[in-house]
Amino acid sequence: MTTRQAGTGEGNSDSAIKDLKEQVAHSCRILYDLGLMTYLGHVTVRIPGTDRLLLGFNRYTYGNTTADDILTFDMDAKKVDGPDVLLPYETFIYTETLKIRPDMNSVIHLHMPVSLAFGVGRREILPLYIHHSEVLRFGLPTVDNPLLASTVDRGQSIARALKEAYACHMRGHGQVIVGRSVDHATALTLQLEEQAKMNLLASQLSPNPQPCTQTEVEEFIYEHSRTPFNSTIEPYSAIRSEIPGVDAGHLAFLSRELKERKRKQ
């Protein structure tokens, strides 16, 4: 494999890579604050125009991950740059998944308890809540192996499960989620655990809770993709004009919400 050097093309300048590292670190902090990714789990993203990836985790930072903590590695799962720590054993999850999914750029692996319980319990997570339905758009397959994805073969089995889907179970282990960007992958990660919680609650009230239909999910995703900040249609354009200069990304909103919660405590 020929490795193209980072920093030599559009989208992979030093400033662009620094911004990607900030995004990865931001996702790590968000997931830590929500209790979804403590010392286990990783957030990765592809450096555009290269065969290299960035990886962040909270193992050594206790949720205070910064851009300086982000590792760089290549598609052969070999460390290229970053702090003096070892690359995680499960790097093959990211290399093999991004090889098979050129349409995706970010992969997150973590161990969310309610989603994990559904995977072990062989219970389907239904799209009960429309706002958290995108992650289930293409199903939620299970990789029937709880061991660390520390080999190419195990990484490839996860990649195959994610060939069409946004997320998969690793039975008795955790979850892997893909997204177009760090923001998108993080949003889908949060959706999966929240949808699992809703399924758990609904199952206490009814053995057959009513899921949103595939048509409803598709229509919601279509409408949501236009709103609120990339739409010229009222009332969404009014929302946009009310808060000029505010980052519209999912992580930015969630970060502000978490900061406000901490301020009030």
3D architecture notes:
This protein is an alpha+beta fold. It has 8 helices and 8 strands; from the N terminus they run H-E-E-E-E-H-E-H-E-H-E-E-H-H-H-H. It has an 8-stranded mixed β-sheet with strand order 4-3-2-1-5-8-7-6, with helices on both faces. Strand 3 (71-74) and strand 4 (79-81) form a beta hairpin. The longest helix is centred in the C-terminal third of the chain and has 24 residues, at 182-205. The protein starts with 13 loop residues before the first helix and ends with a helix. Residues 1-8 have low confidence and may be disordered.
Task: Put the structure in a nutshell.
This protein has helices spanning about 15-35, 90-100, 115-120, 150-160, 180-205, 215-225, 235-240, 250-265, and strands at about 40-45, 50-55, 70-75, 80, 105-110, 140-145, 165-170, 175-180. The protein has about 260 residues and is an alpha+beta fold.
Structural class: alpha+beta
Task: Compute the separation of the termini in Å.
Answer: 52 Å
Largest sheet: 8 strands, mixed
Describe the global form.
Answer: globular
Instruction: Report the uncertain regions.
Output: 1-8
Order of helices and strands: HEEEEHEHEHEEHHHH
Task: Give the total of beta strands.
Answer: 8
Number of helices: 8
Helix content: 25-40%
